């Protein structure tokens, strides 16, 4: 028997974990980058945070030191940030650079379906597409992951087994996160048990906006524990945080609490991902690595629909966080319709003409 | 690695003739004495065209044409009619903006992304804005029915060739004056393209005359007895000479001269955006900007962090072919300017300041200078006092807000300043105390036709743009 540990309001709790619960459920391969490279994951991820470390981090926060650090972050000037994003959006990516960027972007897609109307059939069709996005071209890269609701994880796990495509599940009462912490932890554990090796959690925006940052921190720590070896993406829902200062603070808070990725949005709130918000988060992960030595990934999600958009994001990754972030290990696109536009542009580059929407698959 | 493939803007859109005459009385004419000089592409050193050099006789003819047009046509014309011509010119510029942007990049060396996104939009905006004033001058605050001044002699620099033309020509014409304009000898091509646009717009002959040439031609324009008003943008040294030559003649004069602007970063600034603003302040247009933020004054407590970030950001700047859409830093405008930049940076090193540049391969042909910062600069260093007019930043530190203001104002210039702080009260406090014509708050190098621009102290006098800019061209 072993235990999960989580923290709530500065206090440690222990949960007995069911025997079937484990970091890798039967049938789901360890992480791969979707390009057949082995071992890229090993050593990249930290071991789950030890209870002692949690206690230290939490006590730091409770003592006000870590909170003070967050409150002491430099402000963000909205005009300047948006101007920089607009400047990066004018980069012109052509020919060989475009071909490289399209393939890279395809390999970074978290192909997503998060609808009340999702069915096993729909999820299976999405999984097949994820493994072979362009049936006419076996050279087309696989996407990074499929992202579904917890109830759809068993279906997706069966479909993706051995494919090298990762399986992400949203959890923690997605999209609002307005459920008790016990439910968030159970939600996460269930998704991991069913075979998800990536968890996309939402932060407690209610707590964040009311200034109870310690609660947000503790919840992330608890969910991170529940993830085991699964890889935790923390959704900030930047559209609800409203200010860039909040986005910066929430980014640092999530990273201090153990996030493997910080993610912009659920896709259920407008605005979802924007280039300035993503730029700011890329600055945060670069600064965080400079300060702590730990690298954290970034995932913009929602509203990225065209190849042109994707190019702008990749340029921003390249020039703000740096080339170290230009792999699926450190950058993802949370998207659904983006993939088909990337595929059409890819065919256009290969053949010199536009094929049209009937030459890419609907899902 | 994400290598951006070359993305050059096509040159095919511009048609550069092998040679150009002078634009006098609505026609391109050969110079009376036959002199000529070459305009060179500073990125390749290729000769672009032969340009006529105007002598005293040519300037006489141009001033005479301007005088006749002023008396017979343009001066008496109702403002509402003048406005139509200005609107037409503004529209043609906007429609031909891609062509003009490419031409400006080729002749000047500045990156296409700047000519496309900054210069040309501002040029047409300046004509649109002043077209709107032409029939509303009674309401500009200079009394009823303000009269034009007459013939304006205008001499402009090479750093924003077409934009400086717009700053000079648009208000002059809107107020009912006619002009004789001399563009800089290294960048005459867009002014000559503008002459074609005047013809395309059916502007009456003589309203705009363009005489190309070097310093002697400029001297002939400003000292011409038939000129009623002189407007000059350029160096403080030449500005002094012009002020002397104009003294006692009754001519009106506005001067927009050099600068050594301070960009003040307080510890409570939005650091990332401040760094962006510092980069934009000094590396925009290769630092060939009279209001460039060439002195960074950073509070000691954040100096290290700001410098680290500045260096990281500078490492992403892309220097090279000005026509490539991804180029951030283009060519230095001329061999002469490159020599001056080199001389002053050598002085900076010799005086004990520490230069730093990112890894930045320079092309083999053309005139190039890597973006450079000097740390450890003291107020007494020449690179803290003299205008370098290149991509070279002098970094100084300060301890208290009072010290920042004192150092910022400790210069003979007074054109612009920048302040970076998230604290509103400190911003207002600083802006009140800075002796500069423009103070940018949490931004830098922002220009707008509606906003007056000009200097204090040895940065010149008079304002260009906005309602205040009209005064220089009205007899008030």
Automatic annotation (TrEMBL), chain B:
Residues of the Aldehyde dehydrogenase domain: 29-475
List of catalytic residues: 256
Keyword Membrane (UniProt): no
Recorded GO MF terms: oxidoreductase activity, acting on the aldehyde or oxo group of donors, NAD or NADP as acceptor
InterPro entries in UniProt: Ald_DH/histidinol_DH (IPR016161), Ald_DH_C (IPR016163), Ald_DH_CS_GLU (IPR029510), Ald_DH_N (IPR016162), Aldehyde_DH_dom (IPR015590)
PANTHER family: ALDEHYDE DEHYDROGENASE-RELATED
Protein name: Aldehyde dehydrogenase (Acceptor)
């Amino acid at each position: 028997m072993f235990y999960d540990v989580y923290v709530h309001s500065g206090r440690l709790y222990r949960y007995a974990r069911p025997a079937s619960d484990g970091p890798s459920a039967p049938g789901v391969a360890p992480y791969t980058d979707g390009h057949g490279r082995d071992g890229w994951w090993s050593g990249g991820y930290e071991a789950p945070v030890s209870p002692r470390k949690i206690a230290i981090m939490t006590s730091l926060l409770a003592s006000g030191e870590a909170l003070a650090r967050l409150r002491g972050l430099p402000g963000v000037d909205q005009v300047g940030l948006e101007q920089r994003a607009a400047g990066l959006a004018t980069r012109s990516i052509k020919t060989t650079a475009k071909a490289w960027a399209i393939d890279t972007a395809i390999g970074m897609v978290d192909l997503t379906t998060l609808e009340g109307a999702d069915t096993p059939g729909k999820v299976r069709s999405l999984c097949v597409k994820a493994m072979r996005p362009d049936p006419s071209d076996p050279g087309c890269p696989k996407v990074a992951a499929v992202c579904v609701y917890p109830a759809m994880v068993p279906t997706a796990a069966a479909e993706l087994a051995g494919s090298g495509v990762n399986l992400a599940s949203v959890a923690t009462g997605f999209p609002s996160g307005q459920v008790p912490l016990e439910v968030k932890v159970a939600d996460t554990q269930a998704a991991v048990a069913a075979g998800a090796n990536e968890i996309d959690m939402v932060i407690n925006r209610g707590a964040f906006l009311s200034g109870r940052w310690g609660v947000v921190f503790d919840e992330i720590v608890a969910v991170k524990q529940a993830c085991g070896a699964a890889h935790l993406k923390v959704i900030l829902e930047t559209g609800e945080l409203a200010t860039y200062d909040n986005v910066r603070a929430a980014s640092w808070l999530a990273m201090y609490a153990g996030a493997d990725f910080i993610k912009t949005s659920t896709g259920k709130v407008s605005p979802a991902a924007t280039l300035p918000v993503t730029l700011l988060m890329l600055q945060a992960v670069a600064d965080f690595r400079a300060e702590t030595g730990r690298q954290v990934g970034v995932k913009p999600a929602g509203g990225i629909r065209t190849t042109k958009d994707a190019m702008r994001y990749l340029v921003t990754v390249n020039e703000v966080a740096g080339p170290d972030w230009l792999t699926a290990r450190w950058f993802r696109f949370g998207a659904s319709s983006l993939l088909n536009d990337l595929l059409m542009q890819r065919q256009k580059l290969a053949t010199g003409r536009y094929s049209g929407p009937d030459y890419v698959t609907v899902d | 690695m994400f290598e951006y493939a070359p993305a050059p803007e096509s040159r095919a859109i511009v048609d550069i003739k092998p040679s150009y005459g002078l634009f006098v009385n609505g026609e391109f004419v050969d110079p009376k004495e036959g002199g000529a000089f070459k305009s060179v592409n500073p990125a390749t050193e290729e000769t672009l065209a032969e340009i006529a050099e105007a002598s005293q006789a040519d300037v006489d003819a141009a001033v005479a044409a301007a005088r006749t047009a002023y008396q017979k046509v343009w001066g008496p014309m109702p403002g509402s009619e003048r406005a139509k011509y200005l609107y037409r010119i503004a529209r043609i510029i906007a429609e031909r903006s891609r062509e003009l942007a490419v031409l400006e990049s080729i002749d000047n060396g500045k990156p296409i992304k700047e000519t496309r996104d900054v210069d040309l939009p501002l040029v047409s905006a300046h004509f649109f804005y002043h077209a709107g004033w032409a029939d509303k001058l009674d309401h500009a605050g200079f009394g009823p029915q303000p009269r034009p001044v007459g013939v304006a002699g205008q001499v402009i620099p090479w750093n924003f060739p077409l934009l400086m033309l717009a700053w000079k020509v648009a208000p002059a014409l809107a107020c009912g004056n006619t002009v004789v304009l001399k563009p800089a000898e290294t960048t005459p091509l867009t002014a000559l393209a503008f002459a074609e646009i005047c013809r395309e717009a059916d502007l009456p002959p003589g309203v705009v005359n363009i005489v190309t040439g070097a310093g002697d031609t400029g001297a002939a324009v400003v000292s011409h007895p038939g000129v009623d008003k002189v407007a000059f943008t350029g160096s403080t040294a030449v500005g002094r000479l012009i002020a002397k030559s104009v003294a006692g003649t009754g001519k009106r004069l506005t001067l927009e001269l050099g600068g050594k602007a301070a960009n003040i970063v307080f510890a409570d600034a939005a650091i990332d955006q401040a760094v962006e603003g510092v980069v934009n302040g000094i590396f925009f247009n290769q630092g060939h900007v009279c209001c460039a933020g060439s002195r960074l004054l950073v509070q000691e407590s954040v100096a290290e962090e700001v410098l680290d970030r500045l260096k990281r950001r500078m490492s992403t700047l892309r220097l090279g072919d000005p026509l490539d859409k991804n180029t951030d830093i283009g060519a230095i405008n001329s061999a002469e300017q490159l020599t001056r930049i080199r001389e002053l940076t050598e002085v900076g090193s010799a005086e004990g300041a520490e230069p730093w540049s990112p890894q930045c391969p320079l092309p083999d042909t053309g005139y190039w200078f890597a973006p450079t910062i000097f740390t450890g600069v003291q107020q007494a260093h020449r690179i803290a006092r003299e205008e370098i007019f290149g991509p070279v930043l002098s970094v100084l530190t300060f301890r208290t807000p009072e010290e920042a203001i004192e150092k910022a104002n400790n210069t003979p210039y007074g054109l612009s300043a920048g302040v970076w702080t998230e604290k509103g009260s400190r911003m207002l406090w600083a802006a009140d105390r800075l002796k500069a014509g423009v103070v940018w708050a949490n931004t830098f190098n922002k220009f707008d036709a509606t906003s007056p621009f000009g200097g204090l102290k040895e940065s010149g006098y008079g304002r260009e743009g906005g309602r205040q800019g009209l005064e220089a061209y009205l007899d008030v």
